[in-house]
Design goal:
alpha+beta; Ku70, Chain: A, Domain 2; two-stranded antiparallel ribbon; 6 helices
Protein backbone atom coordinates (compact mmCIF):
# COMPACT_ATOMS: atom_id res chain seq x y z
CA UNK A 1 0.00 0.00 0.00
CA UNK A 2 1.01 3.59 -0.56
CA UNK A 3 1.64 5.69 2.55
CA UNK A 4 -0.63 8.74 2.42
CA UNK A 5 0.37 10.36 5.73
CA UNK A 6 2.88 10.03 8.55
CA UNK A 7 2.47 11.34 12.06
CA UNK A 8 1.42 10.22 15.51
CA UNK A 9 -1.67 9.45 17.56
CA UNK A 10 -1.68 11.38 20.81
CA UNK A 11 -3.86 10.79 23.86
CA UNK A 12 -2.88 12.59 27.00
CA UNK A 13 0.90 12.75 26.97
CA UNK A 14 1.28 9.52 24.99
CA UNK A 15 2.42 9.70 21.35
CA UNK A 16 2.11 6.71 19.03
CA UNK A 17 4.00 7.15 15.73
CA UNK A 18 1.89 5.83 12.84
CA UNK A 19 1.71 5.63 9.06
CA UNK A 20 -1.61 6.00 7.26
CA UNK A 21 -2.93 3.95 4.33
CA UNK A 22 -6.23 4.13 2.46
CA UNK A 23 -8.40 1.23 3.57
CA UNK A 24 -10.70 1.40 0.55
CA UNK A 25 -10.29 1.84 -3.19
CA UNK A 26 -12.58 3.13 -5.87
CA UNK A 27 -13.15 0.41 -8.46
CA UNK A 28 -15.37 2.45 -10.76
CA UNK A 29 -14.36 1.90 -14.37
CA UNK A 30 -12.84 5.13 -15.61
CA UNK A 31 -13.89 6.36 -19.03
CA UNK A 32 -12.72 9.37 -21.02
CA UNK A 33 -14.75 11.73 -23.17
CA UNK A 34 -13.94 11.04 -26.83
CA UNK A 35 -14.49 13.24 -29.88
CA UNK A 36 -16.90 11.05 -31.84
CA UNK A 37 -15.78 12.29 -35.27
CA UNK A 38 -12.06 11.48 -34.95
CA UNK A 39 -11.71 9.36 -31.79
CA UNK A 40 -9.40 11.77 -29.95
CA UNK A 41 -9.67 11.94 -26.14
CA UNK A 42 -10.82 15.36 -24.96
CA UNK A 43 -8.64 17.19 -22.45
CA UNK A 44 -9.54 19.50 -19.59
CA UNK A 45 -8.20 23.00 -20.16
CA UNK A 46 -8.31 25.80 -17.59
CA UNK A 47 -9.48 28.82 -19.58
CA UNK A 48 -10.30 32.43 -18.79
CA UNK A 49 -13.48 33.35 -20.64
CA UNK A 50 -12.71 37.04 -20.31
CA UNK A 51 -9.19 36.85 -21.79
CA UNK A 52 -10.13 33.94 -24.07
CA UNK A 53 -6.96 32.02 -23.31
CA UNK A 54 -5.68 29.04 -21.36
CA UNK A 55 -4.33 29.80 -17.87
CA UNK A 56 -1.30 28.13 -16.29
CA UNK A 57 -1.27 27.09 -12.64
CA UNK A 58 1.18 29.85 -11.64
CA UNK A 59 -1.42 32.45 -12.62
CA UNK A 60 -4.27 30.90 -10.60
CA UNK A 61 -5.41 31.99 -7.13
CA UNK A 62 -8.22 30.74 -4.92
CA UNK A 63 -11.23 33.01 -4.52
CA UNK A 64 -14.37 33.13 -2.39
CA UNK A 65 -17.45 34.62 -4.07
CA UNK A 66 -19.11 36.64 -1.28
CA UNK A 67 -21.44 38.40 -3.73
CA UNK A 68 -22.32 37.51 -7.34
CA UNK A 69 -19.24 38.39 -9.40
CA UNK A 70 -17.23 39.72 -6.41
CA UNK A 71 -14.41 37.68 -4.93
CA UNK A 72 -11.80 37.88 -2.20
CA UNK A 73 -8.58 36.17 -3.29
CA UNK A 74 -6.18 33.99 -1.32
CA UNK A 75 -2.74 32.71 -2.22
CA UNK A 76 -1.68 29.23 -1.16
CA UNK A 77 0.59 30.45 1.64
CA UNK A 78 -2.29 32.50 3.11
CA UNK A 79 -4.52 29.42 3.24
CA UNK A 80 -1.69 27.30 4.67
CA UNK A 81 -1.17 29.83 7.48
CA UNK A 82 -4.84 29.43 8.49
CA UNK A 83 -4.69 25.65 8.47
CA UNK A 84 -4.22 23.63 11.65
CA UNK A 85 -2.12 21.15 9.69
CA UNK A 86 0.12 19.08 11.91
CA UNK A 87 1.44 15.56 12.01
CA UNK A 88 -0.80 14.62 14.91
CA UNK A 89 -4.04 12.69 15.34
CA UNK A 90 -5.13 14.19 18.66
CA UNK A 91 -7.67 12.07 20.53
CA UNK A 92 -10.06 14.36 22.40
CA UNK A 93 -12.49 11.84 23.93
CA UNK A 94 -13.29 8.14 24.10
CA UNK A 95 -16.89 7.11 23.32
CA UNK A 96 -18.95 4.04 22.43
CA UNK A 97 -19.16 3.23 18.72
CA UNK A 98 -22.92 2.66 18.79
CA UNK A 99 -23.38 6.31 19.80
CA UNK A 100 -22.23 7.49 16.35
CA UNK A 101 -24.79 7.38 13.55
CA UNK A 102 -23.30 5.98 10.30
CA UNK A 103 -24.26 9.21 8.50
CA UNK A 104 -21.18 10.81 10.06
CA UNK A 105 -18.63 8.44 8.54
CA UNK A 106 -16.65 9.50 5.45
CA UNK A 107 -13.52 7.49 4.60
CA UNK A 108 -11.57 4.76 6.32
CA UNK A 109 -7.79 4.61 6.74
CA UNK A 110 -5.57 1.91 8.22
CA UNK A 111 -2.86 3.01 10.64
CA UNK A 112 0.32 0.99 11.06
CA UNK A 113 3.11 1.53 13.61
CA UNK A 114 5.78 4.05 12.73
CA UNK A 115 9.39 2.99 12.47
CA UNK A 116 9.89 3.36 16.23
CA UNK A 117 6.36 3.04 17.60
CA UNK A 118 5.58 -0.67 17.67
CA UNK A 119 5.30 -1.00 21.46
CA UNK A 120 3.16 2.10 21.92
CA UNK A 121 0.97 1.01 18.99
CA UNK A 122 0.36 -2.41 20.51
CA UNK A 123 -0.43 -0.85 23.89
CA UNK A 124 -3.05 1.53 22.46
CA UNK A 125 -4.58 -1.22 20.30
CA UNK A 126 -5.01 -3.65 23.21
CA UNK A 127 -6.24 -0.98 25.62
CA UNK A 128 -8.93 0.13 23.16
CA UNK A 129 -9.89 -3.45 22.36
CA UNK A 130 -10.41 -4.35 26.00
CA UNK A 131 -12.19 -1.11 26.89
CA UNK A 132 -14.54 -1.38 23.91
CA UNK A 133 -14.18 2.35 23.34
CA UNK A 134 -13.27 4.34 20.23
CA UNK A 135 -11.42 7.65 20.18
CA UNK A 136 -12.78 10.90 18.75
CA UNK A 137 -9.85 12.87 17.34
CA UNK A 138 -8.94 15.88 15.23
CA UNK A 139 -6.63 15.47 12.26
CA UNK A 140 -5.52 17.55 9.27
CA UNK A 141 -5.00 15.80 5.94
CA UNK A 142 -3.95 17.86 2.92
CA UNK A 143 -4.67 21.10 4.82
CA UNK A 144 -8.26 20.03 5.59
CA UNK A 145 -9.23 19.69 9.23
CA UNK A 146 -11.45 16.73 10.03
CA UNK A 147 -12.96 14.93 12.94
CA UNK A 148 -12.05 11.27 13.10
CA UNK A 149 -13.00 8.10 14.90
CA UNK A 150 -10.08 5.89 16.00
CA UNK A 151 -11.15 2.26 16.33
CA UNK A 152 -9.90 -1.29 16.09
CA UNK A 153 -10.43 -3.52 13.03
CA UNK A 154 -8.94 -6.96 13.58
CA UNK A 155 -5.37 -6.38 14.75
CA UNK A 156 -5.13 -2.92 13.19
CA UNK A 157 -5.88 0.59 14.42
CA UNK A 158 -8.15 2.29 11.89
CA UNK A 159 -9.21 5.88 11.47
CA UNK A 160 -12.56 6.96 10.05
CA UNK A 161 -12.87 10.61 9.05
CA UNK A 162 -16.27 11.91 10.09
CA UNK A 163 -18.33 14.97 9.27
CA UNK A 164 -18.66 17.88 11.63
CA UNK A 165 -22.24 18.23 12.98
CA UNK A 166 -22.94 21.37 10.94
CA UNK A 167 -22.06 19.43 7.77
CA UNK A 168 -25.01 17.07 8.31
CA UNK A 169 -28.17 18.43 6.70
CA UNK A 170 -31.24 18.48 8.96
CA UNK A 171 -33.87 15.87 8.22
CA UNK A 172 -36.44 18.67 8.36
CA UNK A 173 -35.14 19.86 4.97
CA UNK A 174 -36.22 16.61 3.28
CA UNK A 175 -39.44 17.32 1.36
CA UNK A 176 -42.67 15.30 1.47
CA UNK A 177 -41.91 13.24 4.57
CA UNK A 178 -45.16 11.73 5.91
CA UNK A 179 -46.55 13.25 9.10
CA UNK A 180 -48.34 11.00 11.58
CA UNK A 181 -48.50 8.07 9.14
CA UNK A 182 -51.33 5.60 9.63
CA UNK A 183 -50.11 2.01 9.36
CA UNK A 184 -52.34 -1.05 9.22
CA UNK A 185 -51.57 -3.52 12.00
CA UNK A 186 -52.02 -6.44 9.59
CA UNK A 187 -49.70 -4.95 6.98
CA UNK A 188 -47.16 -4.09 9.67
CA UNK A 189 -47.16 -7.67 10.94
CA UNK A 190 -46.61 -9.02 7.42
CA UNK A 191 -43.82 -6.51 6.76
CA UNK A 192 -42.05 -7.54 9.99
CA UNK A 193 -42.40 -11.21 9.02
CA UNK A 194 -40.80 -10.48 5.63
CA UNK A 195 -37.93 -8.63 7.31
CA UNK A 196 -37.41 -11.59 9.62
CA UNK A 197 -37.33 -14.03 6.70
CA UNK A 198 -34.73 -11.92 4.87
CA UNK A 199 -32.58 -11.38 7.96
CA UNK A 200 -29.12 -12.99 7.84
CA UNK A 201 -25.63 -12.40 9.23
CA UNK A 202 -23.74 -9.75 7.29
CA UNK A 203 -21.40 -11.40 4.77
CA UNK A 204 -19.93 -8.59 2.64
CA UNK A 205 -18.17 -10.97 0.24
CA UNK A 206 -21.49 -12.16 -1.21
CA UNK A 207 -22.35 -8.71 -2.55
CA UNK A 208 -20.99 -7.80 -5.98
CA UNK A 209 -21.03 -4.78 -8.25
CA UNK A 210 -23.15 -6.25 -11.05
CA UNK A 211 -22.93 -3.14 -13.21
CA UNK A 212 -19.12 -3.10 -13.11
CA UNK A 213 -18.93 -6.79 -14.02
CA UNK A 214 -21.33 -6.34 -16.95
CA UNK A 215 -19.43 -3.29 -18.14
CA UNK A 216 -16.12 -5.17 -18.03
CA UNK A 217 -17.69 -7.99 -20.06
CA UNK A 218 -19.00 -5.47 -22.59
CA UNK A 219 -15.55 -3.86 -22.87
CA UNK A 220 -13.87 -7.22 -23.50
CA UNK A 221 -16.57 -8.13 -26.03
CA UNK A 222 -15.97 -4.91 -27.99
CA UNK A 223 -12.21 -5.47 -27.91
CA UNK A 224 -12.63 -9.04 -29.15
CA UNK A 225 -14.98 -7.87 -31.90
CA UNK A 226 -12.49 -5.14 -32.83
CA UNK A 227 -15.05 -2.42 -32.19
CA UNK A 228 -12.15 -0.13 -31.38
CA UNK A 229 -11.58 3.52 -32.19
CA UNK A 230 -7.92 4.47 -32.55
CA UNK A 231 -7.08 8.04 -31.62
CA UNK A 232 -5.16 9.95 -34.31
CA UNK A 233 -1.48 10.23 -33.59
CA UNK A 234 -0.68 13.52 -31.94
CA UNK A 235 1.57 15.75 -34.04
CA UNK A 236 5.18 15.58 -32.94
CA UNK A 237 6.67 19.02 -32.77
CA UNK A 238 9.88 20.51 -31.47
CA UNK A 239 11.56 23.89 -31.82
CA UNK A 240 13.23 23.03 -35.12
CA UNK A 241 10.02 21.65 -36.64
CA UNK A 242 8.05 24.67 -35.43
CA UNK A 243 10.49 27.13 -37.03
CA UNK A 244 10.40 25.17 -40.27
CA UNK A 245 6.61 25.13 -40.20
CA UNK A 246 6.47 28.88 -39.58
CA UNK A 247 8.89 29.54 -42.43
CA UNK A 248 6.93 27.31 -44.76
CA UNK A 249 3.70 29.02 -43.73
CA UNK A 250 5.17 32.45 -44.50
CA UNK A 251 6.33 31.26 -47.90
CA UNK A 252 2.94 29.79 -48.62
CA UNK A 253 1.04 33.00 -47.93
CA UNK A 254 3.55 35.35 -49.64
CA UNK A 255 1.77 37.11 -52.56
CA UNK A 256 3.12 35.92 -55.91
CA UNK A 257 2.65 39.37 -57.53
CA UNK A 258 5.02 41.10 -55.12
CA UNK A 259 8.61 40.57 -56.29
CA UNK A 260 11.40 40.16 -53.77
CA UNK A 261 14.54 42.30 -53.83
CA UNK A 262 16.44 39.48 -55.46
CA UNK A 263 13.91 39.15 -58.27
CA UNK A 264 13.89 42.90 -58.89
CA UNK A 265 17.68 43.03 -59.20
CA UNK A 266 17.68 40.29 -61.76
CA UNK A 267 14.68 41.60 -63.65
CA UNK A 268 16.05 45.10 -64.40
CA UNK A 269 19.16 44.04 -66.37
CA UNK A 270 17.03 41.73 -68.44
CA UNK A 271 14.72 44.63 -69.31
CA UNK A 272 17.68 46.79 -70.50
CA UNK A 273 19.09 43.92 -72.51
CA UNK A 274 15.77 43.40 -74.27
CA UNK A 275 15.52 47.15 -75.06
CA UNK A 276 19.01 47.29 -76.57
CA UNK A 277 18.38 44.30 -78.70
CA UNK A 278 15.19 45.86 -80.00
CA UNK A 279 16.91 49.11 -81.00
CA UNK A 280 19.68 47.23 -82.76
CA UNK A 281 17.12 45.27 -84.67
CA UNK A 282 15.28 48.44 -85.82
CA UNK A 283 18.45 50.08 -86.99
Amino acid sequence: MHTVWKGAISFGLVHVPVKMFSATEDKDISMKYIHTQCGTPLSYVRTCHHCDQAVEWEHISRGYEYEPGRFVLFEKDELDSLSEASKEIKILDFVDLHEIDPIYFQKTYYLSPGDTGSNAYSLLLEAMRQSGKIGIAKVSIRSKSSLAAIRIIGDCIAMETIFYPDEIRPIAQVPNLPENPAVSDKELTMAKMLIEQLSTPFEPEKYKDDYREKLLEAIQSKIAGEEVRVAPEAPKTNVVDLMAALQASLEAVKPASVPTQASESTAKPKAKSRKKTKEETVS
